[in-house]
From TrEMBL:
This is Ribose 5-phosphate isomerase B. Gene3D superfamilies: Sugar-phosphate isomerase, RpiB/LacA/LacB (3.40.1400.10). The keyword Isomerase applies. GO terms for biological process: D-allose catabolic process; pentose-phosphate shunt, non-oxidative branch. The lineage of its organism: Bacteria, Bacillati, Actinomycetota, Actinomycetes, Pseudonocardiales. The keyword Cell wall biogenesis/degradation does not apply. It holds the Pfam family LacAB_rpiB.
Length: 143
């Protein structure tokens, strides 16, 4: 798949996630021209919303800033995940299309495991019609 990736810092965890994406055969694009988290989150979100990437992975110290920034882009459903259950649930129940990870709090192994589960996750099926309806509700402006 085509994955948009960006991080606002570099360490063993960001290196491990990028290495995993390449080794798993994904085509990785880096749409961000900035390492500032508001901008890179938006750039990855836009790449996903515009269909330039199938999914996005954003990383910052906490994962929160990049998740918020990505979620400002219409059509983006970014999920901050800290374990595999959260990551799988984000796909299954929220149809998340961007994964946000803490590069400070996740070990390389755990970050890779979460990324792998997220990208291999299943989207909501007909059994999840209630959640699909809830996702649709968010397409309407809230203010
Ligand atoms: O949510 C924000 C992120 O955790 C940032 O990585 C953290 O705030 C550090 O950002 P900066 O280096 O821009 O101060």
């Amino acid at each position: 798949m085509k994955i948009a990736f960006a991080a606002d810092d570099r360490n063993a965890t960001t290196d491990a996630v990028q290495a995993f994406l390449a080794e798993a055969g994904h085509e990785v694009i880096r749409p961000a021209t900035s390492v500032l988290w508001p901008e890179l989150g938006a750039a990855v979100g836009k790449a996903v919303a515009d269909g330039e990437a199938d999914f996005g992975v954003v990383m910052c110290w906490t994962g929160t800033g990049t998740a918020i920034a990505a979620n400002k882009v219409p059509g983006v459903r970014a999920a901050l995940a800290w374990d595999t259950w959260i990551a799988a649930g984000a796909r299954k129940w929220n149809d998340a299309n961007v994964l946000a990870l803490s590069l400070k709090r996740l070990s390389p192994d755990v970050a890779v495991e979460i990324t792998e589960v997220f990208l291999s996750g299943i989207a909501p099926d007909e059994d999840e019609s209630a959640n699909i309806a809830r996702l649709g509700e968010m397409d309407e402006p809230r203010r």
